[in-house]
Amino acid sequence: MNVTVKVGIIQLSISDSVEANKAKLASKIEECAARGAELVVLQELHNSLYFCQTEDVNLFNLAETIPGPSTEFYGKLAAKLGIVLVLSLFEKRAPGLYHNTAVVLEKNGNIAGKYRKMHIPDDPAYYEKFYFTPGDLGFEPIQTSVGKLGVLVCWDQWYPEAARLMALRGAEMLIYPTAIGYETTDDEAEQKRQREAWITIQRSHAVANGLPVISVNRTGFEADPSGVTNGIQFWGNSFVAGPQGEMITEAPTNEESIQVVEIDKKRTEDVRRIWPYFRDRRIDAYGNIVKRYDD
Questions:
Q1: What is the per-residue pLDDT for 183?
Q2: What are the angstrom distances between the C-alpha of 92 and each of 99, 183, 202, 293?
Q3: Which of 58, 129, 158, 210 counts the highest number of beta carbons within 10 A?
Q4: Could you say which of 117, 128, 172, 222 is catalytic?
């Protein structure tokens, strides 16, 4: 297995046409492959607008089975281009049972594995608990031809436990398809604090676990159909960080962007030798971490 891997990240604005979005994504995926990408990561729920701004039972019609139309569409593309592809889909598991699910496609187009989002937010403009059942597949990395991928989704990125458990299971990189932005009434200072907190927490996962982190967010403005909020300005800033938290690449805030970068997986071993956090963990003293709150 290669020590280095070329990774493509695709940061896009999304329209209300699923078919147009899929065609646009296919074009950008092909561009990444043409630039040498072996692994391409897409943003959260990339086929459609971020529908969780409202609670509407009709929007469950966006969900699909896995395998299903999207895994077939993107699977053919992965096989044609010879790339590993990370998708983010609205999964219909059974009538009334839905998940926010990341799917990893292998270079032959087959499904290498999937991860169901574990942490589900429920906040103004992010009413995900209405749509998604929390994941039940645990924090299990997905083995692929480019390495063992620790795939998580958006809100999971704020939880160090999720990153650590993926690392303990042998993940070689952490991957976060994301859809996050500002409520547009927030002032500029608050927007900056939110964006920088989002970047900082994920870079900290890279540092604490000695692993590269790949975070792919959407960009552009999406209105709230209900009019309750002023909509979401997705802040972009997709990035790849190395195992000491160093920025390898960072996309702009308010523009569509494609980045293709090389990750040296050997650096994990090198970094962990000089920062041996795993060696010095006091696993005998961490029992209370599984409590809701340690009264």
A1: 84
A2: 7, 29, 29, 33
A3: 210
A4: 117
